[in-house]
Amino acid sequence: MAEKKESVASVLIGAAFLMATSAIGPGFLTQTAVFTDKLKAAFAFAIVVSIIIDIIVQMNIWRILGVSGKRAQDVANEVFPGLGYFLAILVAIGGLVFNIGNVGGAAMGLNVICGLALAPGAVISALVAIALFLNKEAGKAMDMFTKVLGIIMLCMVAFMVVKTMPPVGLALKETVMPSKIDWLTILTLVGGTVGGYITFAGAHRIIDADIVGVGNLEKISRGSVTAVCITGVMRYLLFLAILGVVVTGVALDPKNPPASAFLIGAGQIGYRIFGVILWCAAVTSVVGASYTSISFLRTLFSQIEAKHRYWIIGFICVSTAIFTTMGNPVTLLVFAGSLNGLILPVSLGAVLLAAYNKKIIGEGYRHPMVLTVLGWIMVVFTAWMGFKSLTGIMKLFG
């Protein structure tokens, strides 16, 4: 019995790190640097509020999917026939395009670390990710990989905080008494942390490990909060590290804000540290995006279910092939980002409806009303953001 409990705890921590490291990608690093430069210490408030919102979203999704024992696409299909297929297609398209960016980020990380050219750096990073899914116990390998690299990132960013000596007192004050509140920034952070496929990475992992049902509800809830807290700690530490640079009045390089912050803050050592963090963030995002995107297709297509590990490997190979031949397709990335904004309101709405469908959720579970109300508020906000983003892109491209 003790061995089983330890196994469950290990899977839940692994699922939390999978979700967290899926969120902490190249875009996460750039986003944090840009907003820190823009809002300075007031960005602390935005981070904390976004963490609270992220917890609401994650608890709703992890609890409902965990109790039902069904993945998001299956729940969506039961709520409204065909919705699961629509959701799976959105996730697969968005996941593939973003994975091209993740592969590119990993290649750039190796370029910063050791000067390796982008194409071979992309291939090497892809091979590392593929090796996990060639393992017979791919789930355990993925859990360990994301845990180790997640801890490495946290330690290195913490080192940079010590190195840049940010005004911690001011940051803590602004956390609770902000001099400026930017709600658009907060919603952008939410989209980057639990938008698209990201919020389902950990939830689908616990379902794969059969940690489901009302009996596991407390563990599932704790895992969902842990996932968001890992991401939040990383965001706050990264914010502090960059704040220590921007408060001096030094301008960050707009072409690569986080890299320039690390270079200014700690010289060449800082630049190399950024390379390691970028590679860790990107390659774990490759793993998370590939695993989660295919998990949305598994139960809908029997051919994929039977050979899902090889489909994940194929997903990584296609992403890498596109990057090495085309580079980062900016138009595709921008458009996928807009489509990505539609995934959370559609999926969260379907999951919230499922919470009150006894055929899906069973007789022994009652979803907390406070989570339901707050969840629907997030559906409205994220739908508005997604629609605004998509219409803006449609105008941009004619």
UniProtKB/TrEMBL annotation:
The keyword Transmembrane helix applies. InterPro entries: NRAMP_fam (IPR001046). Keywords: Membrane, Transmembrane, Transmembrane helix. GO terms for cellular component: plasma membrane. It is found in: Membrane. GO terms for biological process: iron ion transmembrane transport. One of its GO terms (molecular function) is manganese ion transmembrane transporter activity. The chain crosses the membrane at residues 7-29, 41-62, 83-101, 107-133, 145-163, 183-203, 224-251, 271-297, 309-326, 332-356, 368-387. Its main location: membrane. It is a multi-pass membrane protein. It comes from the Bacteria. This is Divalent metal cation transporter.
